[in-house]
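Assess this:
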Amino acid sequence: MTNGQSTTTLEENNGDHHIDEEDDVIVLNFDGIENNNEDEDRCLFGNLVSITGETGSGKSLLVSKVADLVTGGKASVSLLQSSTATSDMTPPTATAEMVLSLYDESHISFVTKTLSDMDLDPEIMLQIPSENGYREITLRLKRTISLVSSNKGQQPRIKSNCFINDHLVSLKTLKAIASPLVAVVNAPVAAAALGQSSSRLSMIDNGIPPTVLTWVHQLQVTYRKRKKDRKVLQKEMDSQILPVSMMRDNNNNNNSDYDDKQLDLLRHWIDELDGFERRITDVQNSICSGILMQNDDLEIERLLEDLDGLDWMTAANTVSPDTSSMLYATLLDLHDYLRNLDARIIAATEARDSLASMSVSESARAALERTRQLLLDAGPQREGNMSGTITAKSRVGVATEKAHQMLNHVEDALSECATFLDDDSLGLLATLKATRRTCPLTTEGLLEHITEWNILARKHGISPDQLPHCHDNLRKELDGGVELGSTLLPEAKIAEAKALKELEEGCRVLTGTRKTLCLRISSLISRRLPRLGMENSKFEARLCPIENPTYSRSHLGAEEIDFYLLHDDQIIRDTGTIETKNSNHQIGGKVENVASSGEKARILLAIECEIPGSISALGSNPTESNTGGSILPVTVIYDEIDAHVGGRASIAVAQMLFDQSKSCQVLSITHSPSLAAIANTHICVRKASRVEGIERRKELARMASGDMAVEEAEVFAEALLRDASINTRE
C-alpha cells in the first residue's frame, strides 16, 4: 500500500455481495490474485481503484455502504436478513470493516488528538513506530450490527458495537475518527448539495487558509458572546422598575454620577417609600393577628393566611410579575371582602329590627300588635248577665277569633326569624360579627392605605403592583449595587459595538480572500470545461453580500456564494438569469438551475481538482469544519460520480479522478470503461474479484458494449488500456 491508501474488507461466506446470517462477517475476496499473504489478498491496491460490475451486483453495498457504516452512518434493518434466522436462534449480525494506513503527519496528529479528546489513550489504542523520523499507524475500523428483540408487538431494534484496533469504542468516537478520514460521495446527493448555500460556502472555504477561518470564527464567537451579554443585561434592565424620570435620565446620560439635587430627590423617594412600607407592615401585623382567632369562614381565613405569607420585601425581590403583585392584589381582595361583610352585618341588623323590635314603629311585630288591637275594637260587644258571660255569638265574633289564631302563628314565625338573626351565640349576626372581629381594621382605614399606594405608584409612573420592586431598585441605585442603566448596560453596548467592528474587519479580510479564490477557481475551472465536453461555457463563483448579516453559528462571514454556468456574450438580468445581449432567450444561470446531472458531476470534480477536499466538505458547517485546521481525507469513495457522463467527457472525468488520486486514494464505483481503464486497480464485482490482463480487457469490453460485437469491443478495450497507460505516464 502506498501513502494514504486504505484496505476495505467486506466478509461473507462464498464471497457473495449480500449479507448472510450464518456468517456474521462479509469478505471481499479477490479470486484472481496469487499471493501467499492472506491480508494482502484483501487490499485495494493503487491510488485510483475502479469498481465495476453489472447493475444490481452489489457494488454500492460492498464499498460505499460499508464505508458509510464504518464512518458512523445509519444502519438499517434491511441489511440483516432476519427471515432466515438460524436454527439455534442466533441473532442475525453483520460486520463492516475498513483498514486505513496513515503516513501523513496531519492524519496521525488528528487521530491522536481526537482519541485524547475522547478520553482514550492513544498509546494504548495505537502502535506508532518511529524509525529515522518516519511514522506510520494502522487503523482497523470495525462496526458490528445485530438485531435485538424488543417487547412483544414491537419491531426489533439494531444494536451496534464499534471497534478501533480491536478496542471497543462508542459510535460517536468511531464517527469522530473515521468521518474526516473517509469521504463517501453519492453522486445525486453531491449534485443536490450544489443548490445549498452552506455547501457551496464549505467547498470554497476548503481552499481558504485555516488561520484566516479560525481568526474570523473566533471574532464571530466573541461578537455573539458580547451580544448575548448585552441582551441579558438589557432583559434585566427591562425587568427593573425605576421611576420614569430616572430611566430617561440614565438612558440619555449613560453615566453613574448624580448631582446633589438628583441625590436629594432619590433619598426623598426612598424615605417616602420606607415610611409607606412601615405603614403597610403595621397594617399586615394588625390584620394577621386575627388568624389566631377561631373562624368558620374559609374565605377570610384564606385571605389572612395569604396576607401573612407576604411582605413588602418579598414582593420587591420576586422576579415573576404575577408573584410580585400578590401583596397589592391581596389587600384589594381583603378590602372588597370586608366591605361586603360590613354590608351583610348592616343588612342583618336592619332585618332583625324590622321583624321583632318593639321600639321600631314600622317593625313587623309592632304592626302585628296594632292589628290585634284593631280586631278587638272591631269585634262584637259582650252580652250577658252581670258576670259577663257571653250568651250569644255573632258570625263576626267567630271570624275575629280565627284571625287572632292566625296572628299567633305569624307571631311565632317572626319570633323564630328574629331568633335566627339575633346576635346571641347561634345567631347570624353573632357569626358575622365574630368573623368581622378577626380583622380589626376598618374598611375606610384599609382603603386609605390602598389609595396612598395608588398615589405613590402614579407619582413614579408605574403600576401599583410594581411599587415594592421600584422601592428596592431605588435603594440599590443609591447604594451602587445595581448600575445597569448607568454603567453595566452602556459598557456592554460599547463592548458589543467594538466586537462587531472587529468582526466586520475580519469579515472584510475573509471576503477579500474568498473573492481572490473565487476568481482563481473560476478561471481554472473554465479552462477545464472544453475538455469536459462543455465548449463555449465558463464557470463563475460569485460572492453575494448579505444585507444585515446576523453572524449566526451556522454561517461564517457576511456573504453567500453562488455558482454560475455561463456562455459567451452574457449579461446578468435583475432576475438572476443569464441572457444574450441580442436575445431574450435564457441560456444560462445558476448551476443548480441550469446544469444537467452530468454537468453538475463534472463541475464538482473540477472544483475538487482545484480545491482538494471540497467535495468531502459538502453539507458541512463552515464554522465547525474548516476553522480548526481541516485535514484532507485519506480515501474518497465515489458512488457513480460519472453517471450521465459519456463520450469524450467521460475520458476527461476519468483523468480528473486520476489527478485527484495523486493526493489521496480514490475508489470509484463506475460504469465508465474509460475510468476503469485508467485505474491502478480494477475490481469487478461478480463474485468479488480483482481483474487483470485478459480478464480486465474482457470486463472493459463488457462495460463498453455488453454482449454485442465482442471482438470489436475487446479491440476498443485494448485501445483504452493503451491510452490510459500513456496518460498515466505523463
